[in-house]
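pinning this so it doesn't scroll away 📌
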Amino acid sequence: MPRSGKRKHDDDDDDDDDDDNLLDEDDRFGEPMFSQLPPEASQSVKPETESHRKNLDNLNIEAQEKHLVSISRLILFRGLEKEPIDRLKVTKDAGIAGKDNIGSAAFQEASRRLRNVFGFELNKIPKYMENQKGMPPRFKDRYYLQNDIGDTQQGHHSRAIHSVHQSSCIEKGFILLVNGLIFCKGESKSNSTRKILERDLYRYLHRVDDAIPEEPPVHGSTRFKARSQYCRGTQGEGLTPNVDTLLEQGVNWDYFIKEKATEDNCSSQNLDEGDILYSIGPRSAIEIGRRQIIVFCASILGEAPDPSMLREIEEDIEDGEEEIEDTYMEGPEDS
């Protein structure tokens, strides 16, 4: 993934036309992209327990391979569909019963295979998000399959993958835009999160593209019922995606967190019945990161990134890294 949007130009007048064309092509990608800056520091796979490793090693080769192939395939197929990977659920679905007492070792071994064969990493929610008050418990044992292959400064590998299908580019652009609106227009909370009302989010999206409805779908309407029927490759008008379905799919992919607005989590707003809040999800944190979102917003406004916001992120990251080190020194739980 590219780490910088700036490219040093070669002023050598002897460069041939092909080199000049290449520079011109790369320069078009000098503006902020989906994952151009380092994202949040994610947590790696939970360490295996000694007892689970011993039990797995005691199985014969055929039984070991059956379990490991099954869980590796499940993780790969679900991960490629952007499904969040729940460690306990995927272990159970792979046919590994709790009484087998091999789950943590099998999951760890599957993670190694995916890394060594495909260059994929299984990463967990960032520590700073895990510690946030009110973070739904369902996120604390979820993993996300990520492409960890090194990339050039201009992101040639990433562009080669995601530019194959136009829908993939549109999805990523929409996800970055929504995260930018959440971060820049959302209400800041005491636990370092920012949240935006769904009706406000639609209003801002409509200002960006008037083909997007100005209001969210009414509960119980045909439009509301259809929002869960996302089909990749379908679009609204022109290049405008179906925002209703893509927003809901973004929630399913964990790019966004969706919750009911209450007096407790949205006390400064006059709430209507059925109001919904959106905030940045774990997958956005580990694939995009708040630094990228801040730079994206600043670039649109033609301003420099806010140093105080960047400093706040660095403090969160430092605190999270210290806690991760302490956790791994304590050793794994037997689960």
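📌 and the second one:
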Amino acid sequence: MNQNKSIFMYGKNEVKKGVFFSLDALIALIIILITMIIVYPNIENFKSENRVHSDITNVLSNLKIGETNNTFVKNLIYENKISDLNKSVLEQIGEFYVENITLAKDLASSVLSDIESKENFGLWYGNTPIFLKNLSSFENAKNVRVDKQIISGIKEGSSVKGYSGRAFLSSDFQTKYFYFGGYSGDGNISIKIDYFGDLEDVKMEIAVNKDFDIYINDLFSGHYTNSSSQFIPAKYDLNAYRTNFHSGENILKISEKDLFIAGGYIKISYSNVSAFNDVKRYYFPGVEGIINIYDGFYIPGNLNEMNILLHYNSNYSVFLNIGNVTVFNESSAGIGETSRYLNNTELSSKLNYSSMTKKTIPLRIGLNELKSVGEKGNADVIIITDISGSMEYRLNSDSIGIARNCSDPQLYDSSTKRISIAKCLDKMVVDIILNVSGNRVGLSAFYGDNSYPYKGRVYEEGLTNNSQYLKSKIDQYVPQDGTPICAAINDAYKILSEQSNPNRTKFVIVMSDGIPTHTCASSGCEGTRTGLQSDEALWLGYGAGCYGGSDDCNVNDCNCASQNANWSSCRLHNGLNATVYSVGFGPVSSCNMANKTLKNIANCGNGKYYSSDNATLLEDFYRLISYEILELSYSEQISKASSGLFTKIYPDSYIEFNYTSEQRPYGLLVSLEKKFSDKYSGTFDVPSDSRIANAKVVSYSGPRWTKEIKINNVTFYNLSLYGRNYKELGDPYNIAIPESLIQNLNNITLITGISPENSSEGSENNKIIYTLVKNFSSYSSIQAHASGCSWEIEFEDNTNYTLKIPKNYSGQSLCYYKEGKQEIGDENDAINIAVLNLFRSLDSDSNGKIDIKINEQNLGVNSYEIVGVPYSWSTKVEIRTWD
């Protein structure tokens, strides 16, 4: 019973399932029949129409042109306009399409015009109609049918032949640098420049203290202005006097009394076929005046032998220190011009050659009589600080700021009170100046009474070398009311006249954030009131309407107060020979009266004026002023001590070293320059397909010494290893980077200082100058043309140049490689593509400026015709029908 029930149930289920499938099939069949009834006429119609365009395509692509029974085709073959009889008709029309479109249309017409069709049809190559047979226009078509074919090696406007281009730099174009030391002085400075070949370009970059004349091989070669700072070199183009140079040895002289150069170089580019040569000599800069050179030299291998030639003239003892060793100390008194040769036996007994291998060695040459000059400071400095009521404001606006101490990480935020930043910068100046023993600093802070008659007062501290005491007094500054600038300047005059003497150098730093509101004269605008008790400055508010607000910026209500501040600065400079600097603190530059006052103070005080509402820049200004004070103090000591002295060292003096050279890589030499990112660091890259021939860091250390340099956190130069007294040591301007430490990606850090204990930033104008060895050539892919272009290019020094590539190019196409614009006129030109690729390889930072100077003579191009290879371009061919 159970079994039958089971069988029955199974059969019941199977029958039910079968009925369901039959219903599905029936529904599907009905749908198909309906679809066929509705759609079938259109499908048949489509198939019928499709035969026209597909059949034409098939015939034209399979029929060889040589098999065509067509009179027009036979004539073309006879005239040698068709040479390859195995091309299909479609390919032959395509060849004519790119070479002679009229001929292409004629051929298509002769082949297709006899086709009998009631349909509109046409032949297109790319977007160009070659043949049309139509009853109605294609533009008004409602339905379009297309059959497509791709023909390789054909492109509109292109050749059916292919070309590959190559661009390369020739090896006869060289760049060479001639370096000055970290300090070369004092007097006329000369340098020996040698090359063999044709000079193409001459540039000079130096930090120099005075305007000067240049003489090239005793020929006058222009007058030039000084650099704005010892940390900011000026750049000079000497190409106007390039003909004054000649192949071989040249002497370039920079001429002016008491001149010094605080680092720099002369860079030449010239044509010459020669391999890379290791440097075997260091040449001293020539000096006519006071021999005073801080420099260095590098030995790139294991030192085996050293010899020195000193060609000089001095009635005073000349010393030469290499590292921390005095290798020479003699006088030519009574002899006149003389040459002293130090041989290897003498030098090897004093120097440890093994410790000099692959290192930059500091070098110092000078006069014994001046050796102690500058070792002890003689600067007296007065720091004048504005502590008027507005110093409570934010740095960048006239609203109350936030008080912060010097260790606060947000100290330099624009929301900080001006007085907070001023206190910290004052204390920084104290530390820098008093870090040199013998220097002294005094303080004068000005403010106004907060009740009538609102007298102008100063807080005074006399000259001292006690930095902790001075900084504790600075911390006590509290802003209050008016701005009696003249009183503080007169107070500085009083302090210096009473506590200094004519043999000391004197400096005053005047800082203010606003318009002067007081006069120091009982009548008129020229008075000597000091702001001290019973000698207070007089407020000009009620009488003249001078309140010091923004409404006084563009009127003359405070003009008398401004004139008195200027007069007091003139008096300070003229009467005591003091140099007066001024600093605008906050948005001073937007206020005409405040800006004018501070600028006039600096001008009459023979100093410099700086202004900013950016705390970081203000710190830079204070540091710059501080170190300039140290340098000017030192220079004045040299000037006083050397009054009446005249000595000379000739630029043919040298140090010659014989060392074991390493094998140099072979290839084209290209010298590159990479400016530092900031005052402490810079980066440079070495491409994987290049090798380093040499690399140097150049340092504008100003009055300081280049103290320590690292590459990728590894120290390779440390001046303190040679001694604690930096005055005895040299200061190299260019410091070589050992090649073994250089990687593909490199980071350089540099610090300066005036002693082992002191560290400071360098200059943003520091650079890495390095020479790569590389095969500089580039190729194009296969292209349709190889004609060339007229190029406009921009170099890294921002100069521009136009050149034709190849040299005999006479076309109108323009190409560009400039900042913001790198493009070629014809993107299918093999030469243009190869040149563009070459320029990209010469643009190490991809800024659109080529790193090295090039011209038609040292840039070569080749092109090669390519036959029998697949082409890299193609054209779409279409047969279209429409209604």
